[in-house]
Amino acid sequence: MTRPFRFYLTSLLLIAIVPAFIFSLVVLKRSVDAQEQVITALLQASTGSVTRIVERDVEGMLTTLKVLSTAPAMEGGDMEAFYRRASTALADTDSYLIVIDRKHNQLMNTRVPFGTPLAKASDPASVERAFTNNGAPLVSNVFFGQTAEKWVFNVYLPAKLPTGEEYLLALTQNAESMAKAVNRETLSPGWNAALVDGNGKVIISSDTGVKAGEPFFLDKVPAISIGVRNITENGTAYRVATEFSVVTGWRIIAWAPRTTVDAPATWSFLWLSLGGIIFAGIAIAGSLAIARLLSQGVKLVALDARRLGAGERIEPRPHMIAEVETVSAALAKAAASRTKAEGEIRFLMREVAHRSKNQLTVIQSMLNQSVHSAESVADFADSFRKRIAGLARSTDLMIANAAQGVDFRELAQNQLQPFTPDDPKRVVLSGPPLRLDTESAQTLGMALHELATNATKYGALANTTGVVKLSWSLSDEGIAVRWREEGADIEAQTNPTRKGFGTLVLERMLGMALKAELERIMHPDGIEWRINIPRNAKGGEGDDAEP
Fold first, then answer.
1. Which one of 253, 361, 472, 547 counts the least CB within 10 Å of its CB?
2. What is the Cα–Cα distance from 303 to 229, expressed in whole angstroms?
3. What CA–CA distance (Å, rounded) separates 478 from 476?
4. Helix crossing, 5-69 with 79-89: angle to 10°?
5. How far from chain centre, in Å, is Cα 535?
């Protein structure tokens, strides 16, 4: 069934829009449920984090009390010395130390200078409970401190003097010092948190309208509870999360109006509905225009495809639809690639023919030299086979590294590997990273093969102690290669004036193909070859090039 673009676009829009409105209800419900779970988890994590902050601070205060209780000045009854030590220890903290006797008298308070007249403790109920708590520490509820003239809380630690006299060490802090625990910046927008003591009084709150020392306004929050619940107070519904601190007996309460909590879900529904309506209107209104543009683009693409099949040159066409323009650019690129590929194929065919002829020429020269230098048929077969194998190894490296060139170290290792003795330290390679073109690699590979062959037969590798050192370096002039044999048995060598195939490779192929300068030096313990290859040296051209 053949239909224009506008028919299929309109059908597609109807198929997408109608189920989308139905599915949006399911997605919205699941989104609300997931959001509720996330909010619950975040609330529990937040209240738990506040609880840990509070308990960590209180435990730190208790540790400070235990350290101060062992002060020698206190055990010796020197209250003034103890005052000085406590003041120094608490100088950089929000805490102050109070010493209280069994009659609730303040013997010392670091809030005021030593010797200042002090009244009885401001919270007698918690002081008495601390004295009767079987020696265990106690955290008070919030109370108004007469000395501080602020809402404070105390951490008590009972102790005894060597005389048996009981007293309390108390670290006191202003309630406002706990503001860091209910920092509003750590809460979600619209949420508040408060620290409430065991009597239901507020210690500190992120809501400035909830004052310290006043009863917490949500009376229906259970005294000991952990979790998230909904509470209605004075006609307003709240979402409330609570956490209970076992160490302090306090509660951490986070709350927000339900309207604030549910606002994201409500707005999500409104925006989803509005967006769906707007999207449907825009999609339906633009479908005909898009169909028209697509039709024009397809016709032009079809025309370019026919031209590509005919092998014609194609230019990319600009178009308002990016996909059509991309296809047009791809067709133009394909046409250019086709032209380029055809040229590369012709070039490669010529190159293969040229390389094949060069290889045959090299093999012919190897055959001629092997015949002339061989002493027997077996010697000829062995030397010719090894030379062919060396040429094959160089060819493998050239094929494997045709794009980036052949690494000289890899070439040397590849050619010398069949000749390397059991002790690898007898063949030493040294030089910087160096990449060779294919023809240079083939020529140097054959040269290294012949040098290694001569070293094995007559030179440093013909005995059990000789060493071959191959080194190379780079300079502005070109490449310098040095082949040095040490520890060779000179007397066992053949006539040094006789030129074998290896010498011909060095002198003819390196000299002629790479325009290299060669120097042969005879040392008392072995031969040395110095090869200097100028930069941009090129091999012989044409089918008649000989090594």
1. 361
2. 69
3. 6
4. 160
5. 43
Q: Which residue has the tokens 């032209």?
A: 339
- Residue 215 β-bridge partners: 201
Only one residue has tokens 């030096």, namely: 521
Q: Collapse the DSSP code of 232 into the 3-class scheme (helix H, G, I; strand E, B; otherwise coil) and give the result.
A: strand
What are the pLDDT digits (tens) for 323-348? 667 777 787 877 777 777 676 667 55
Handedness of CA 146, 149, 151, 153 (dihedral sign): negative
CA pseudo-torsion sign 117, 123, 126, 129: positive
Query: Among all chains, which residue has been given the structure tokens 């009854």?
Result: 77
Instruction: State the DSSP code for 315.
Output: P
CA distance 270 to 277: 11
Token pair belonging to 429: 């390679």
Distances (CA, A) of 21 to 107, 266, 278: 75, 16, 12
Q: Which two tokens stand for residue 62?
A: 């208790």
Kindly list the distances between the CA atom of residue 485 and the CA atoms of 279, 411, 455, in Å, as whole numbers in the listed order.
Answer: 84, 19, 8
Question: How many whole angstroms separate alpha carbon 540 and alpha carbon 547?
Answer: 9
**Whole-structure pTM over 0.85, yes or no?**
no
* Burial classification of residue 508, based on how many CB atoms lie within 10 Å of its CB (0-12 exposed, 13-18 middle, 19 or more buried): middle
Burial class (CB in 10 A: 0-12, 13-18, 19+), 388: middle
DSSP-derived letter for residue 506 is: I
CA angle 453, 458, 463 (to 5 degrees): 100
Q: What is the DSSP letter of 133?
A: S
Which amino acid, 546?
E
**In this predicted model, what pLDDT tens digit does every residue of 38-81 receive, in sequence order?**
777 777 777 788 888 888 888 998 998 888 888 777 766 788 88
Q: Is 77 left (phi over 0), alpha (psi -120 to 50) or beta?
A: left
Whether the per-residue pLDDT at 435 is higher than 50: the answer is: yes
Continuous segment of H or E residues that includes residue 251 = strand 251-257
Using only the alpha carbons of the chain, give its radius of gyration: 47
Give counts: helices (H), strands (E), the chain: 10, 18
Q: What is the rounded CA–CA span in Å between residue 92 and residue 454?
A: 85
Longest dimension (CA), the chain: 124
